[in-house]
Write a structure and sequence with these properties.
Layout: H1 4-23, H2 46-52, E1 60-66, H3 71-82, E2 96-101, E3 104-105, E4 112-113, H4 118-127, H5 148-154, E5 158-166, H6 170-176, H7 206-213, E6 217-221, H8 223-226, H9 240-246, E7 250-252, H10 255-260, E8 270-273, E9 283-284, E10 301-302, H11 313-324, E11 333-339, H12 341-347, H13 351-375, E12 378-384, E13 391-393, E14 402-407, E15 413-418, E16 434-439, E17 448-451, H14 452-462
Parallel strand pairs: 1-11, 1-12, 2-17, 5-6, 5-11, 6-8, 7-8
Antiparallel strand pairs: 2-16, 3-4, 9-10, 12-16, 13-15, 14-15
Helix pairs in contact: 3-13, 4-6, 4-14, 11-13, 12-13
The structure holds zinc ion.
Length: 478
């Protein structure tokens, strides 16, 4: 099907771009063809930028994390789908941008570990605390730190957590649970988390803690863990899915059932589990290989595994916002949305699946921005948890690593290189700073160079949350 996933979605994307152009204070030259004039801003921007700076507090915060979405991943997605002079209708619409550092800590000495994973980075933005790779909202000493979702809930706000991965995966897990290492997802996987075992008086696995934390909305994959049986505690002998039902969750397992949900609250929180593991990617294509860069350029295809009964991240985001936003409630909401498989397909050296997830994630960002622009009192932050492997290199070349050449929306070849692992092995994260972008009350706090842990305070302050929270620990003083 070489009509390509891109052309199928281009029409709606163009509509999105035009709407954005009208709503944005930025003059954007959307050049899908090489016209020579590719400027993105018309004249001096001082007044435009000033008008985008608004002080908090915000009623709502929507945080969208593109897992592994470094600058090169964003550029790859933009080039392929909208052309080099085009723009991503969601991510590129956020007016205030900065960069943040993402390093973790080496547990042997507390000094920087320059390449983070999603667990340590998530603990950073979720709790304001630097920690070691693998840690789920615990610090170097194993102490739990309250998360932005827990604090928001405690303050009476509604809360939601959405991912295209298993909801037990590190990024969603850091908001709802505290375990020594990210693999402790279910009762059968607790070997490395002795202190968290229910048998030892602990709070249990990530799945069990998710049910106890009880956000109003949790959407993603990971059904295989809910099929396990609790080994101790009040629900011993019961599957975790039966436990969810017993505890009052409204469980849905396909897109149609999600669409029909009208409300979610503490009486009946919404739990959507749409796949045994991670949700399938929306697009697919040939992997990068040692000679792929010099082979004929390809276009990406829709992935038949992403069937109509699996909701898109945009559909999950829209539904989460719909049920969390209650104009009659005194308080607002906190929502996190993760585009997880940008990272997972970067690991796999699959450029089409990777950039398709980035384009799809951007639709969720656009949905969040549409809501925030209507609402007028919502802080939207878009960032990544860490950098990743993929790089745009000279067209048609091969490298010592893996490459693949794609035909972009410009009709030009774009060669993507993966160079952090050999063929057949998982490509690795990288330690670069990544983009953070904001819109709405408090968004000025993302400008310049910050650290991932600063995002916790940006969100907490925007929501006016009282901080009953341990302090971060930086042994070198910061
Ligand atoms: Zn990863």
């Amino acid at each position: 099907m070489r009509t390509s996933a891109r052309r199928i979605t281009l029409a709606s994307a163009l509509v999105g771009t035009l709407v954005l152009g009208a709503a944005s204070s930025y003059a954007v030259t959307s050049g899908l063809t090489g016209t020579g004039d590719a400027t993105r801003h018309d004249g001096d921007q001082t007044r435009q930028v000033r008008s985008e700076i608004r002080q908090g507090p915000a009623r709502n915060v929507i945080l969208l994390i593109g897992d592994g979405m470094g600058d090169s991943e964003i550029t790859i997605a933009r080039n392929y789908q909208y052309g080099a002079a085009g723009e991503l209708p969601g991510i590129d619409a956020l007016p205030l941008t900065g960069q943040y550092t993402t390093y973790a800590l080496d547990p042997s000495n507390g000094l920087p570990d320059y390449v983070t994973d999603s667990a340590a980075s998530g603990t950073g933005w979720a709790t304001g605390t630097k920690t070691y790779n693998g840690a789920i909202s615990v610090d170097l000493d194993g102490n739990s730190h309250a998360t932005i979702l827990e604090l928001a809930k405690k303050a009476g706000l509604r809360t939601g957590n959405v991912s295209t991965a298993e909801i037990q995966d590190a990024t969603p897990a850091v908001l709802m649970s505290h375990v020594a290492t990210r693999g402790c997802k279910s009762p059968s996987g607790m070997d490395a988390c002795e202190a968290q075992k229910i048998e030892n008086g602990g709070p249990g696995s990530i799945t069990e803690q998710t049910l106890a934390t009880r956000p109003d909305v949790v959407l993603g994959g990971g059904a295989r863990y809910f099929a396990e049986t609790a080994t101790a505690g009040e629900y011993a002998g019961m599957t975790l899915m039966d436990q969810a039902t017993e505890r009052g969750f409204n469980v849905v397992t396909d897109a149609a059932a999600l669409e029909s949900v009208q409300a979610a609250d503490q009486d009946a929180p919404l739990l959507g589990v749409f796949a045994p593991s991670h949700l399938p990617t929306v697009w697919n294509g040939p992997l990068a290989t040692p000679t792929g860069g010099s082979e004929p350029a390809v276009t990406c295809e829709e992935n038949p595994a992403h069937t109509a009964d699996i909701p898109t991240v945009e559909a999950m985001t829209t539904k989460a916002i719909d049920v969390l936003d209650d104009r009659h409630a005194r308080k607002g909401f906190f929502l996190q949305v993760e585009g997880a498989s940008i990272d997972k397909q970067d690991h796999a050296a699959n450029p089409c699946a990777q950039l398709g997830e980035n384009v799809d994630f951007d639709h969720a960002v656009r949905a969040a921005m549409d809501f925030a622009e209507r609402d007028g009192n919502t802080l939207v932050v878009v960032s990544a948890d860490h950098g990743h492997t993929s790089q745009i290199v000279y067209p048609g070349i091969t490298t010592p690593g893996l490459t693949r050449t794609l035909t972009t929306a410009d009709g030009q070849p774009m060669t993507i290189a993966y160079g952090t692992a050999a063929q057949g092995h998982s490509q690795t994260h990288t330690g670069t700073q990544v983009r953070i972008a904001g819109y709405g009350p408090g968004a000025a706090n993302v400008v310049g160079l910050t650290d991932q842990t600063d995002l916790f305070f940006t969100m907490k302050n925007a929501l006016g949350l009282d901080k009953k929270h341990g302090h971060g620990w930086w042994p070198w003083g910061r």
